[in-house]
Amino acid sequence: MADDGAMDKLKGKAKEVAGKMTGDRKQESEGQTDQAKGRAKGAVDEAKDRAEGMRDSLRNKDD
């Protein structure tokens, strides 16, 4: 799932640049929104990974 965030950021950047080049503010804004979604997905994935790591380290202490 980490690739979803990266793809959203890449797609968003492309939309933003295309919007800037053509003067299409709506497309530029959509691109910025897509990038924000990508960053949010990345943050969620990172938090999930950290939580799993903490869970695993706690389980190992009991062994």
Description:
With 63 residues, the protein is mainly alpha-helical. The protein has two helices and no strands. Helix 1 runs antiparallel to helix 2. The protein is rod-shaped.
* Most strands sheet: none
User: Could you say which overall geometry the principal axes of the C-alpha atoms support?
Assistant: rod-shaped
Strand content: under 5%
Count every beta strand, where a strand is a DSSP E run of 2 or more residues. 0
Low-confidence stretches: none
* Quaternary assembly: single chain
- DSSP helix fraction: over 70%
Kindly provide the radius of gyration, computed on alpha-carbon positions and rounded to a whole number of angstroms. 17 Å
- Rounded mean pLDDT score: 91
Number of helices: 2
Q: Helix/strand-derived class?
A: mainly alpha
Distance between the termini: 31 Å
Give the ordered list of helices and strands: HH
